[in-house]
Amino acid sequence: MKKIMVVFVLAALVCCTVVVKKYVDDLRESEASCRYEREAEQADDTAFKQAASAFKIAELEKYLKDFPTGNHVVDAAERIRELKDEETKELVWSERFSKAGTWAAVVSYCGNLNEGGHNDWRLPTIDELRTLIKNCPKTERGGSCKVSEKNACLADNCFSQDCYCGENEENGHYSKLGDGDGVWLWSSSGNSDDPERFWYVSFARGMVGSLLKEGYEGDDDSVRCVRMQVK
What we know:
Blueprint (H helix, E strand, L loop, with lengths): L1 H52 L3 H10 L6 H15 L1 E5 L9 H10 L13 H5 L53 E7 L6 E6 L4 E6 L8 E2 L3 E5 L1
Parallel strand pairs: 2-5
Antiparallel strand pairs: 1-6, 2-3, 3-4
Helix pairs in contact: 1-2, 2-3
């Protein structure tokens, strides 16, 4: 009888060992699967952000090819449509900047502007203003500075050392339109962390930053209105 009990206990132990081993193997497999899914999702997110920030159709099409079932397929297709639409148009800037003052004042100024026979002028987005920067690859459109309305990055943590370059002795060094270093141009893109602040471009350092919409006393807060026209 004792021998039978011993055999029974040993068999039970073997059975338990097999069950435990299977449980551990299943757990490891599940953890590996979750880790793979997380890594795949991170790779998908990174690839889309890089493609979208480049503002190039080819980069977005490459994303769709590499991640045909990715989380951002719809977003990439929409961005491609937007870029193709932009290719048929061009930004036209007002002939000169105006020292209109506060953010509310510049919105009103552009809304009432009649220049060159056109009255469809408006305040530019921060992405559009970045097209006016030169000699600072970090803040030019598609540069490493993350501040972008199209990429939905308008919070404080989007600003970094990549959002400005060094000072330059040549006045207007960072402006394609020759605006001097003292010119700060408002955008229509609000800071998503603070409704009282809006993003701007300063040509003193090719800088992208955010500013209280009331501005700072003594500053020459300015505006260059923009409109779109078919090429």
